[in-house]
Design a protein that fits this description.
The model has no long low-confidence stretch (mean pLDDT about 90). The longest helix has about 30 residues, at about 75-105. α4 runs antiparallel to α5 (about 110-140). The protein is an all-alpha fold and about 140 residues long. It contains five helices and no strands. It has helices at about 1-10, 10-35, 45-65, 75-105, 110-140.
Length: about 140
């Protein structure tokens, strides 16, 4: 446990978070842009599209910048496993936020977009810590 706490205090974690913030801006921008574009896309599809856009940037940034590794098929497959887990965490947070919003805010598009954003923001620190630890000790080892 002490080793994990120490890992989160390293400079490398700050670089990881910085890259993650860049990816999050892209992720949230795509999600919100699709939800507010008036094209009738579902929250799940918009959330997934944002997540996918961030995925490509995330792998390239962390492989090269955060962990200084060259691309390998094995690392990319491990990365996709971490992404799948983080995707489930993200969707659970967005789903919970939508359920809470339906209790008090109604179901119009603006309320759904705001609830989805709240869920996404709640998921970010969970995904960041999980992603860093798994990337450091498993994906890019």
């Amino acid at each position: 446990m002490i080793k994990l706490a120490h890992a989160l205090r390293q400079r490398q974690f700050l670089v990881f978070v910085g890259g993650g913030l860049l990816c999050a801006v892209l992720d949230i921008g795509v999600m919100q842009g699709l939800l507010l574009a008036g094209i009738g896309i579902s929250v799940a599809a918009a959330t997934s599209a944002g997540f996918a856009a961030g995925l490509v940037l995330n792998y390239a940034f962390h492989a090269r910048v955060t962990f200084g590794r060259l691309h390998s098929a094995a690392a990319f497959l491990r990365f996709l496993c971490v992404v799948a887990l983080n995707y489930l965490l993200t969707m659970a947070c967005v789903g919970a936020a939508l359920a809470i919003a339906r209790l008090g805010l109604g179901a119009d598009a603006a309320s759904a977009a705001n609830a989805a954003l709240a869920g996404k923001l709640v998921s970010l620190p969970l995904v960041a810590c999980n992603g860093f630890l798994l990337s450091k000790y498993w994906t890019f080892r």
